[in-house]
Amino acid sequence: MVRIRSPRFSTALAAVAVCGLLAGCAKNKVRAAPDVAAARITQIGVNSYLWRSALDTLSFMPMLQVDSEGGVILTDWFINPRTPGERMKVTVTILDQDLRADALRVAASRQLQQAGQWVDAPVQAATTQKLEDLILTHARDLRRRELSAKKS
Fold first, then answer.
1. pLDDT in tens, 33-43
2. Using CA atoms, how far apart are residues 27 and 7, in angstroms rounded to an integer?
3. What is the CATH number of the domain that holds 90?
4. Which of 32, 62, 94, 99 has the most CB atoms around its CB within 10 Å?
5. Tens digits of residue pLDDT in 53-82
6. Under a CB-based contact definition with an 8 Å cutoff, are residues 123 and 109 in contact?
């Protein structure tokens, strides 16, 4: 009895054989260790430097939602003891797996207490910009520290 194999089977068999040959060649190659800490660390869904930095920067605020896969940190309302008639809420979204300035978005909500009610108030653009700058600076510092630790 003669078996006729389908073209798909033959193609798949050839692909497996080529992969096996390439894998055998790759074993003999020695790769140099990278000299810098990777800017793209994605063991979670987003850049881990930005993620850790955002959590560190907002650690004084109560967290409402923290999603490392989606890259979203949502805080609950925070009332500064020095200004009890004002409260803030922050949302940080990490948009990319690379450590870049445009991979981060910060949005804030602010409310003032008036006649026993919380009323929405505008947030200065400088406030969210300052938070973004703090998170980015800290993320870069984390990366530098990791680089210097690897060199030691």
1. 444 445 555 46
2. 31
3. 3.10.110
4. 94
5. 999 999 999 999 999 899 999 999 999 999
6. yes
How big is the chain by its Cα radius of gyration, in Å? 25
Q: Coil, strand, or helix at residue 65?
A: strand
Structure tokens at 70: 């989606």
Phi, psi of 2 (to 5 degrees): -105, 130
pLDDT tops 90 at residue 14: no
Q: Identify the three-state secondary structure at position 106.
A: strand
Domain enclosing residue 97, as ranges: 48-151
Please state the separation of Cα 28 from the chain's center in Å: 35
Q: Which of 5, 111, 108, 14 is nearest to 57 (CA)?
A: 108
Residue where the block lists tokens 């260790």:
33
Q: Would you mind telling me the total number of residues written for the chain in this entry?
A: 152
Residue 128 domain flag = yes
Give φ, ψ of 5 to 5 degrees. Answer: -90, 145
61's torsion region: left (phi>0), alpha (psi -120 to 50) or beta?
A: beta
Q: Does the model's pTM come out above 0.85?
A: no
Q: Which of 95, 4, 113 is nearest to 50 (CA)?
A: 95
